Amino acid sequence: MDPDLRERLAELVRARRAVRAYRPGPLDEELVREYLGLILEAPSAFNLQDPGIIRIRDPRVRARVLAAAGGQRQVAEAPLLLAFLADPAGWRRTLPEVTERNLASGYWDPATAAERGERIRAFQRVRAEAGLAREFALRNAMIAATYGILLAPAFGWASSPMTGFDDAALKEALGAPAEATVALLLAVGEPAEDPPHPGRLPLAHRVHLDRWGGAGD
Ligand SMILES: Cc1cc2nc3c(=O)[nH]c(=O)nc-3n(C[C@H](O)[C@H](O)[C@H](O)COP(=O)(O)O)c2cc1C
């Protein structure tokens, strides 16, 4: 264990707040690229890396996103605005590239690639038949978005996660595929406010022992 790392991470997690006011001016582009690269380190089922991230830079697109998000201040103000996209068909696009790269790097040999490809297609088929493809895509996208939330303070930034938007209008503004869902909008930037901790319920109220309702201590 690394106590310093634990302490720093604990501090970062406890001090993180949803911030809705941001300082104007662009963020350092190198840092933004580093931040985005770290978000891509988020895990995804079978490492399919299917969640897409849309960086909203064009003011005309932002204006439409702002309208779709009910005019929320942070959408207008934050220098960096990201939409995390869950696309149930995303894995079909990424599987060939992931396979190609894994073969090129030697991470998979051809037999493994064939076996994994078969297993992934079978898994996705079962999920799709059960009507759960969207749910599965959402899980991966939310994990990527969570990386964005947690990484921001390490760059001196804050973030505002949002689902308060009109799904159809937002998808339209972003040109998202019909079957896709915006899992989360994330506004990021240097904070211009320091909101208080809104509190959390005690551990015993939220952690169950063995079964739902099982008393913790
Ligand atoms: C999935 C999700 C959706 C949210 N949507 C919005 C939103 O649309 N607008 C907003 O102002 N805050 C939104 N929030 C922020 C929450 O209100 C905030 O995280 C919560 O009150 C806890 O505060 P804290 O993040 O400072 O601990 C959202 C948070 C999450 C996790």
From TrEMBL:
Pfam families: Nitroreductase. Residues 13-189 form the Nitroreductase domain. Signal peptide: none annotated. GO terms for molecular function: oxidoreductase activity. Keywords: Oxidoreductase. It comes from the Bacteria. Coiled coil: none annotated. Belongs to the nitroreductase family. PANTHER family: NAD(P)H NITROREDUCTASE YDGI-RELATED. This is Nitroreductase. It comes from Corynebacterium sphenisci DSM 44792.
